[in-house]
Design goal:
The protein is α+β, with helices and mostly antiparallel strands. It is built from 3 helices and 5 strands. It starts with a strand and ends with a helix.
Length: about 110
């Protein structure tokens, strides 16, 4: 990886890319420019583009992305527990998957879990 640019984190604190302007992103990559100290957020595609000269490779993102997926899974698990404790019921969508019957309660539990 390029020594000038370092990955700081992958998270959902922002939902837009500072490079291309795309919004509604589920996650962004925070990259620090060690020469200027600036930290900016980019979508995964823009962070990997060689033309951006970050020097970031897919393998560099892998460990951060794995950590991000773990955080999301823990949040969802906590939200499911809170939903069930609040009396929320699940409805079968397919023979192998279920969805919350009360979407309003589910969204409230997701916010609290974050």
């Amino acid at each position: 990886m390029n020594e000038r640019f370092k990955i700081k984190a992958i998270n959902d604190e922002e939902s837009s890319c500072m490079c291309c302007g795309k919004s509604g992103l589920q996650k962004v990559v925070w990259i620090e420019d060690t020469e200027t100290g600036d930290i900016q957020h980019f979508g995964c595609i823009c962070a990997l583009k060689p033309s951006k000269a970050f020097g970031i490779k897919k393998d560099d993102l892998k460990s951060y992305e794995t950590a991000w997926k773990t955080i999301v899974a823990m949040r969802n698990s906590k939200a499911r527990r809170m939903y069930r404790e609040a009396g929320g019921l699940m409805k079968m969508v397919t023979p192998y998957s279920a969805a919350p019957a009360n979407l309003e309660l589910w969204q409230e539990c997701q916010k609290k879990a974050a």
